[in-house]
Amino acid sequence: MLLSDHSYDDYSAATPFLIALCLRAGLFCYIIIFTMKKFYVIKTFGCQMNVHESEKIAGIAEELGYFVTEDDSNADLIVFNTCCIRDTAEKKILGNIGDVKVLKKKKPSLIVAVVGCMTQQNGAAEELKKKFPFVNIVLGTSNLSELSSAIIAIENRQKKRYDHILNETMPTIDETIPVKRTSGTNAWVNIMYGCNNFCTYCIVPYVRGRERSRDFSVILDEVKSLLDEGYKEITLLGQNVDSYAYENKRFVNILEEIAKLPGKFRLRFMTSHPKDFNSAVIDVIRSCDNICNNVHLPIQSGSDRILKLMNRHYDRARYMEVLNEIKQKLPHCGITTDIMVGFPTETEEDFLDTMSLVREARFSNAFTFVYSPRRGTVAAAMEQLSPAVKKDRITRLVDLQNSITKELSLEYIGRTEEVLVEDLNPKKPGFVCGRTESGRLVNFPGVEADIGAFKQVKITTSRSAALWGETYGE
Ligand code: SAH
Ligand code: SF4
Ligand code: F3S
Fold it and tell me: Which protein residues are within 6 Å of ligand 1, measured from CB?
């Protein structure tokens, strides 16, 4: 725009004033919007199921106009997505909920919700009510969709407290909950919910109900749209993926159909149960390049006596048979496991069976746990071992597995592995991290723009489980 001398003078005189006015108005609007903006924090505990469920909680919160924050003191809504698999998990969560009391005192409008497995245990909702009267919302594992109406009811002061636990063992699968994905290059996809196995130590069947498989076509459509959105890795979730059953479709059918989808991506799944994991699954992994050579196959114990008491429906021989078939057909497959020590009545001899199995199996990695009695489970009523015995056994087991993981890491040195870049290395500037197909974490030089890319990385060093390498030819 051309300005005459006169208008130019007027303009220049008015400019600082106008700018100041705009800035003030802008600042004012910003303050209004900022103070009106509502923030949420989700505190997630437990397994990948819960991690994914927290993405649904985030979807609900954002649909209601909340924005995510890392700062608890800034939050208007705090949701605890809980786990009760072990006593340690539960104690930690109870401590964390207790800490929120101070925030609630400072900001009475703060909405505090407790959802997830812990609430679903017998009498837990009542206990939470007594212990934490400041909590506003308590929901069970199968009525998370009520979170939206519960928050609205509390916001509008129609209710002070919204508690609802559904005790159905076969709750319907709700496909309408919005999902706000937070997992970067990987997208979690539930293929089934619940568990029918009733391992005698485990609370999951009681708090997650019976097995329900999702509609095959709904799963496929979800995966297709995730790949269209640019996700490079899909991880199928279920407590026991091998028992997926929807009409005439089984787990292998899901793997085959997803693997056929176009584009470069990786397919993973967890968890497999040794009683159901079979040759058909191994063969599909072998024949499809995009299904990762990575299997999580929990053993729990190496003692047949204990496996029987655990109600696992396999013995050591069957487990080793499956494991050897995997190793033979998929030579570079990463095999991880879960192992528990201190199950009721476990003798030193039983424990030594576990140690010998670990030596024989040579797992890439193992998640090791100290047995902890869970209320209402069969094993909780059995004779318990002393904490000192459990502590001694877990230390020996962890030491053994660490040394095996370390040895297996050395085998990677000199190999070139395809790595999907997941993130910047949080501790080492100029480095990124990602996983090999077998599930090993690799660190190597890279930048933010590499996230989501597949890189050929030559492994040069290993530090226990983690590998370090360099890219070349770029
Ligand atoms: N569905 C999966 C695992 C679910 S829970 C499976 O069947 O393998 C994850 C792991 O937690 C289990 O594999 C088991 O090793 C451990 N766990 C379950 N209940 C436990 C308890 N009461 N005490 C200690 N560890 C337990
Ligand atoms: Fe728990 Fe056993 Fe079911 Fe796994 S299979 S969730 S350990 S009951
Ligand atoms: Fe915990 Fe529930 Fe998962 S008890 S391990 S969050 S299914």
Answer: 85-86, 201-202, 204, 239-240, 271, 273, 298, 300, 338, 340, 369, 371-372, 374
